[in-house]
Design a protein that fits this description.
Layout: H1 2-16, H2 19-35, H3 38-58, H4 62-86, H5 90-94, H6 99-109, H7 114-117, H8 120-136, H9 144-164
Length: 165
């Protein structure tokens, strides 16, 4: 699963012109994922996201930067929920508690141009992110059902993103 994520990340990064900055993080992400260091994966993904965001901002496209960040966060959350579902524990589920990030991305989706906001894939993405926001508010009460609900919402958002391409 980690290797698949790495390949997708590199393919998308090449298409956007950010392969160099993503390559710097790729080996670390793969190694951390293989060792099960999900906190380390999260930190490395945050660093990767920051580099890609800066590259997009340098292109002067803030909305694109936000969407790329959203896509990276959603994919990382999908991988994290899969790992937590497989080896459920309260400590691992705590990693999923990201209400501030969920709210940040939900707010950013509201700022897209109307023709995008009302396009079917973006409506699905917005609905999924709003579902994640609701589930993220369950801080401290992560059950396998909560993790499954987040995983389902994230999967729906990622499927909608694939439809945009």
């Amino acid at each position: 699963m980690v290797e698949d994520f790495g390949r997708v990340l590199m393919r998308e990064a090449r298409g956007l012109g950010f392969a160099d900055c993503v390559t710097r993080h790729s080996a670390s992400l793969t190694g951390l994922g293989r060792s099960g260091n999900w906190a380390g994966v999260r930190e490395e993904l945050i660093a990767t996201q920051a580099d890609v965001e800066q590259g997009v901002i340098d292109l002067r496209d803030e909305k694109l930067a936000h969407l790329i960040s959203l896509g990276g966060w959603l994919r990382a959350l999908e991988i994290s929920t899969s790992a937590v579902e497989a080896n459920s524990s309260a400590a691992q589920a705590k990693v999923l508690e990201q209400p501030d990030l969920a709210n940040y991305f939900a707010g950013g989706l509201k700022t897209l141009p109307p023709e995008l906001v009302h396009a079917p894939p973006f409506e699905k993405i917005r609905a999924a992110v709003n579902g994640i926001c609701l589930n993220a508010k369950q801080i401290g009460r992560r059950s396998p059902t909560d993790v499954r609900a987040i995983h389902t919402a994230v999967g729906a958002a990622n499927e909608a993103i694939r439809q945009v391409n």
